[in-house]
Amino acid sequence: MTSTSARPTACLALADGTVFYGRGFGATGTTTAELCFNTAMTGYQEIMTDPSYAGQIVTFTFPHIGNTGVTPEDDETGDPVAAGMVVKWDPTEPSNWRSVDNLNKWMSARERIAIGGIDTRRLTRAIRQQGSPHVALSHDPEGNFDVEALVAEARAFSGLEGLDLAKDVTCAQSYRWNEMRWAWPDGYPRQDNPKFKVVAVDYGAKRNILRCLASAGCDVTVLPASATAEDVLAHKPDGVFLSNGPGDPAATGEYAVPMIKSILDDTNLPVFGICLGHQMLALALGAKTIKMNHGHHGANHPVKDYTTGKVEITSMNHGFAVDAQTLPDGVEESHVSLFDGSNCGIRMTDRPVFSVQHHPEASPGPQDSFYLFERFADAMAANA
């Protein structure tokens, strides 16, 4: 058990009975979730608003969280999706010309709980050794905590296995997207001369993925996760994109896999998937997915592209992975993690169908992986 010298106003209780005390900020109350850690030094706002973090509380290993403030331009979706935040040092007043608010107010307004003053090194080691634990995070300005009840709440959390969370974060109805990547000095320009028509299936799509598609020359129509093959093909697309998202891929695959199989069986359209979209494609092709011990979450993950022999520095956020040993004939591993050898990409050997586990839109390299969007555009051009 750890404590702070001042009266604690927040408490993080793990299902194994371990309790961390600290200083709360953001919203008050209690939330339960799976706890993960993220090693990125920047991008905390993008991480908190990434729909792939649904059902998770994020421990940030970098101590200076909140020092650049927040801006609506950096939201990956309308509101934070991650359940909460754990940091070492309390957020300071922001120092950045783009900032329009501070992190504490931003978290509070969006009803997300955070705790500071935590030994995040110790917590991260525990996650790495024991796997992502189930936790309860509570913030009470008066410091009144029923620790036994919090531990019981953590133990009662069902976990992410078997959960279809894509249905909770997908769009309610279809929409068009033409905003491109941020460019100095005007911000986000619009795509007014698209070359390809793309349907993006939204399992929890990040805005910057859609921007990258637009920047690669795509006129993007976004459809909900429940879209059928008929819904997709009604738009007469040149290509189909499968987005990132949260939860257990096998659960989302109950309805996503039949749609993808139909697209693959009935058309020769280029298909490109990222993160959960990668896992959905793998399942549709006959492979399997597995739950990882603590997943990959960060912006410093080296990945090798077997098709070029190059190594790129990538951003990752996933707790499940494709089991490369289950890939069927006609499908090969295209990318691999140089941290642990886990699968990071697949492709069909005879068709323009491919996907990656990492996030090429997050640009930690900073542009190491943008070629994947260009590869998708090239496949559509060749298929025209």
Describe the protein's architecture and organization.
The structure is a single chain. The chain is an alpha/beta fold and 384 residues long. It has two domains: 147 residues, Glucose Oxidase, domain 1, CATH 3.50.30.20; 218 residues, Rossmann fold (3-Layer(aba) Sandwich), CATH 3.40.50.880. The protein has ten helices and 17 strands. Helix 8 packs across helix 9. The radius of gyration is 21 Å and the shape is globular. 52% of the residues are buried.
Main sheet characteristics: 10 strands, mixed
Q: From the structure provided, what is the oligomeric state, counting identical versus distinct chains?
A: single chain
Give the class-level CATH name of the largest domain. Alpha Beta
CATH architecture of the largest domain: 3-Layer(aba) Sandwich
Instruction: List the domain count as a whole number.
Output: 2
Cα shape: globular
CATH topology of the largest domain: Rossmann fold
Order of helices and strands: EEEHEEHEHEHHEEHEHEHEHEEEEEH
What's the Cα radius of gyration? 21 Å
Describe the SSE topology:
Blueprint: E1 10-14, E2 19-26, E3 29-38, H1 44-48, E4 56-60, E5 84-86, H2 103-109, E6 113-116, H3 120-130, E7 134-139, H4 147-156, H5 166-169, E8 175-177, E9 196-202, H6 207-215, E10 218-224, H7 229-233, E11 239-242, H8 249-266, E12 271-274, H9 276-285, E13 288-305, E14 310-323, E15 331-337, E16 343-348, E17 353-356, H10 371-383
Parallel strand pairs: 3-4, 4-5, 5-6, 9-10, 9-11, 11-12, 12-17
Antiparallel strand pairs: 1-2, 1-7, 2-6, 3-7, 8-10, 13-14, 13-15, 15-16, 16-17
